[in-house]
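User: Predict the complex with 4FV.
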Amino acid sequence: MKFDVVTIFPAMVNAGLAEGVVGRARDRGLLDIGVHNLRDFTTDRHHVVDDVPFGGGPGMVMKPEPFFAAMEAIISRRGRPQAVVVLSPAGRRFSQDEARRLADCGHVALLCGRYEGIDERVRERWATDEVSIGDYVLSGGELPGLVVIDAVARLVPGVVGDEQSVEGDSFGRGLLDYPHYTRPAEYAGLRVPEVLTSGHHGEIRRWRRQQALRRTLERRPDLLDTAALDEDEREWLREWSARRARTE
Ligand code: 4FV
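Assistant: Here is the predicted structure with 4FV placed in the model:
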């Protein structure tokens, strides 16, 4: 999987890519990540990347020319990305489905803004997607870019050792994850649910499915509209809502 990141803080991005699953995958060549310093694509000796906003107003806006030059260079050096993502609060909300779609692209460029944002003509000319990681304002697009790379990289075969854990991940089937426990079986007066130390793998799988479903029902019922539920899960939901109706 190939990524290209355009940023004025390459060290910050490289630091965020250096550890753990993504860091190992990059070292093993499963991920080919180009991190490009936007200032390298300026032509003035002060490497200026921002300017005052047309129409006035607070703050500065990132100039279009360096981004255009950066995209031209990426295409000539590394090929044309299938997806060019501008990270911004005005974008489509990032999700596991979005991560899967980008993972199927094979080559994704990520344009990270700072200041008030990037001149709109960059999005008009280059972006295939505008993506937001959430309804809050950050000081830059680098952290959102790292979030996207991390989520997409986990879907690249071989990046996460045990493929099952990716499939079993939260949102793998659109449900929240079941609770996790490890040794000791009792700690601070708190015991691990019996079923998990029972050795009954069928029972354990059933308990985990019920826990994932119940948590989703309690915390994110909105997810149930799109979750891929099987007949058991639909039956449990019917039982639980019938029981709740009886107790209300
Ligand atoms: C953001 C978000 C975000 C806005 C102006 C960078 C900042 C600054 N990006 N999801 N939320 N970006 O807050 O993606 O340039």
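The mean pLDDT is 95.
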